Amino acid sequence: MLKKMNKTVMASAVVFSCVATSVSAATEWNVSLWSKRRAFTEHVEKLAELVSAKTNGDFKLNISYGGLSKNKENLDGISIGAFEMAQFCSFYHKAKNPTITVTELPFAKDVSLAKLAEISQKVYKHPAVVKDLARWNATLLMPSPLPQYNLIGVGDTPKKLSDFSGKRLRGPGGIAGVMSQLGAVKTGVAANEVRQALDAGVIDTVAFAQHAHLAFGSIQAGQWATTNLNLGTANCPVVVNTDALNGLSKANKEALLSSVNESLDYYVSNYEGKVIGKYNSTLKEKGITEVTFTSEQTAELNKLADSVRAKWIKDNSKKFKSKELYDFTAALFNE
What we know:
Oligomer: single chain
Order of helices and strands: HEHEHEHHEEEHEHEHHEEHHHEHH
Structural class: alpha/beta
Strand order of the largest sheet: 7-6-8-5-9-11
């Protein structure tokens, strides 16, 4: 009888132990980024820190820089659940995410990072955008707001807009679309190959935000830099696998979603406080010539941008209500 009771007690203890282990096991998400930790990823790092703190370590974000996927395949990885969270840039694969490329259009506005974050968050909630990303089982979590891109180049410093004719340009669609009308030639080069491409004469100029000019070495090779191009920036959101998001416990989901705005505030503060200052000081230290467009030149660039915006609307009109999404986004920029 005693043996039988001992076996029962032991069996119950094993079951209890398994249940306890199951209950106490932390939820872990894998996060696919690329390159290395930098200003561009600080909101994701902050998000991981906040989520862990709010859940007492019960919810962890395991961040990988290139160990899970190539940057241009992150959306595909999200779609099949290879990892739960990732960052990507919409211009990597426009056909996969046409709606969010609207924020990359040249709106010819100099807006703050905080305002860009606000605009992107509202665009991400637009029904057309939600539906678009749902095709990849993806939910847009937060943007990676970037300043308006500016050019750094080698060779003769452009003094008039016609001087861009023939220059080989590496940059996103909006900027390339405008500059190509001036005769610039869009040239595809991976971000981590930009410095080498500039040194080797493969490209003459590259459009980046400040952190990327610093991180990928274009500022080390550059001889001149524009200061007020204002022809757009990149949209590089952080997305999550929708099934994984819906599968979170109520507490963990709340910890994640409630940490987004604080993570973005940290990102903006870090970018404005450290990156932009370092970029400007590096320009001066290296004696790089700063090119500032006149009001007349800016007006001409904006006029050329009209056709780029119109083309985007036309090209996407059969995929979704592109004019409606464009008007919605333009109104946000004009607020």
